[in-house]
Amino acid sequence: MPPPVFRFAPSPNGHLHLGHAYSALLNFDLARRTGGRILLRIEDIDAARCKPEFETAIYEDLGWLGIGWEEPVRRQSEHLPEYRDAVDKLIAQGLVYPSFESRDEIARLVALQEAKAPWPRDPDGTPLYPGTAKSLPADERARWLESGVPYALRLDMAAASERAGDLGWIERGAGPDGETGTVAARPQAWGDVILARRETPTSYHLSVVVDDALQGVTEAVRGQDLFWSTSVHRLLQQLLGLAPSAYRHHRLVLDDEGRKLSKSTLATGLRELRAAGASPTDIRRLVGLP
Fold it and tell me: What is the Cα gyration radius of the chain?
């Protein structure tokens, strides 16, 4: 039986903090305990925010913590054609459509809807897409595409969910309300999610599914804030014919006010803690690991 495959997948849009350290160390410890492999993936599709100096800092901080990984490191920016291929497969199934509203226009549409009645929101609290791009006539859609305006490629969630049927995943950790074992997926709660944009041929939801499959990841260990995102990931895996991982969603490391840590919170940044004299053993103690 092949060994389990784990991965740690940070974005180089800032320095790592204690929350990242906990997730990276947990993946590393589980891989070591099970005789598994540990991969490092750099999720750098956001060209505006991801910087080479932050990527270099990731390698330095993980090395300081004593974490090793297999080479080569997968950098998402080097694999954009693979994500485009996945989008094309979904387009061929008739499950993707372009929407042309800007973020400001979408916010105004939501405000108009909420003036009449509460508008549904996804598990992260973001309003569902309220636009009508899905029902645009083909000729009008073609004119918009030819005009060169920015657009987002959205998954037709109703059609996709009907095609995929009932789905679930194996949860080895726990959800925000203690969900564990076999969890029923609820992708419809996310509405018509964005899969790609005109200027960026992928999104987090799409690229994480493609990457995990291509890298043979069998154990996806990540924070509870991504628990219900797994519903979308299972749906995309089913539609693209990709093998699912088992999932382990872990607790989040919170600040003194009970909030999720931010990369701008210097008090919990690994580089700041190291400069203040902290050791890797101190970091393990701070995040509650042996």
Answer: 20
Query: CB under 8 Å, gap of 24 or more: what pairs does 144-147 form?
Result: 144/98, 144/100, 145/98
Predicted confidence at residue 173, as pLDDT, reads 97
What's the pLDDT at 260?
A: 84
Contacts of 13 (CB under 8 A, 6+ apart): 46, 49, 50, 51, 54, 263
Contact between 76 and 211 (Cβ < 8 Å): yes
Q: How many helices (H) and strands (E) does the chain have?
A: 10, 10
The rounded distance, in Å, linking the Cα atoms of 228 and 162 is 19
Element housing 52 (H / E): helix 52-65
What rounded mean pLDDT belongs to the chain?
Answer: 96
What is the pLDDT, as a whole number, of residue 267?
64
Cβ-in-10-Å burial (0-12, 13-18, 19+) of 123 comes to middle
66-88 per-position pLDDT tens digit? 999 999 999 999 999 999 999 99
